[in-house]
Write a structure and sequence with these properties.
With 271 residues, this protein is of the alpha/beta class. The protein has 11 helices and 10 strands. A 6-stranded parallel sheet has the order 4-3-1-2-9-10, sandwiched between helices. A 4-stranded parallel sheet has the order 6-5-7-8, with helices on both faces. Helix 1 crosses helix 10 and helix 8 crosses helix 9.
């Protein structure tokens, strides 16, 4: 067990790949003076079609790396990990704040006018007990349509955020939800905010698109006893790790992050 973290210790944020940068962005806005470590497990992306035991093993490995790096808290910026493994991860680290993203089913159910909500997610998230619990708990009287979106994560990992092929891939999954009456779409994967302009273009202005990342950042600030910043100019350092090729992953991260990123190899073992 790692020693208690110092107040100025970093916060660890991880995802199967680069998609969790959408959550890291909101964490930095809410807590701009904190030091952050971001781990992109791109060598194993996507998690959405991996066996659940593989997903959990990767999540446990990265959380151990964060603990040994002295992180005072961790953010699971991956809906697949949350849906499949979050309870086991929290049981393994009962003394450590772990804040996890999950699809915004509750606010979507409150917002819909038609009574139909679409959840865009990976196959594993669609089939996860976590999503089933969310729907059962928060969507009474609302018809929730989980929609697996194979290939979307890989597009974002390659930096293919727009263009005819990307728009066709998005339309293939979004239009059936619109035809079923959905007027709210939930982004159930942290990669998908980077496709949001295309999703909104396909869905049209009458359809709301919800991203839960800001709520994750607010919850992290609450758990750490901090008020979200009113002046969000970042000053804290950010360290980027990846299990993929640092040069190629770093290039995509630079595009998504909007600032130069030097990605370092993910450590093989806690140290």
């Amino acid at each position: 067990m790692a020693a208690p973290a110092e107040p100025d210790a970093p916060i660890g944020v991880f995802d199967s790949g680069v998609g969790g940068l959408s959550v890291l962005r909101e964490v930095q806005r809410a807590l701009p003076h904190e030091r952050l470590i971001y781990a992109a497990d791109s060598g194993y992306a996507p998690y959405g079609d991996k066996p659940p035991d593989v997903v959990q093993a990767r999540a446990e490995h990265i959380l151990e790396l964060f603990r040994h790096a002295g992180c005072k808290a961790a953010v699971v910026a991956c809906n697949t990990v949350t849906g499949l493994s979050i309870q086991a991860l929290r049981e393994r680290h009962p003394d450590w704040p772990i804040v996890a993203i999950e699809p915004a089913v509750k606010p979507a159910a409150a917002l819909t006018r038609t009574g139909v909500v679409g959840v865009l997610a990976t196959r594993n998230t669609v089939a996860s007990p976590g999503l089933a619990r969310l729907i059962a708990t928060h969507a009474g009287g609302v018809h929730v349509l989980p929609q697996a979106c194979p290939g979307w994560v890989e597009r974002v990992e390659r930096g293919e955020l727009d263009g005819p092929e990307t728009e066709a891939a998005v339309a293939e999954r979004v239009r059936p939800l619109l035809a079923a009456g959905a007027d709210v779409l939930v982004l159930g994967c942290t990669h998908y905010p980077f496709l949001r302009p295309v999703i909104e273009r396909v869905a049209g202005p009458a359809v709301a698109v919800l991203d839960p990342a800001p709520a994750v950042a607010r919850e992290l600030a609450r758990r750490l006893g901090r008020a979200p910043a009113s002046d969000p100019a970042p000053s804290g350092d950010v360290t980027f790790w990846t299990s993929g090729d640092p040069a190629s992953v770093g290039a995509v991260m630079t595009r998504l992050w909007g600032r130069p990123v030097h990605a370092r190899p993910l450590p093989d073992h806690p140290r």
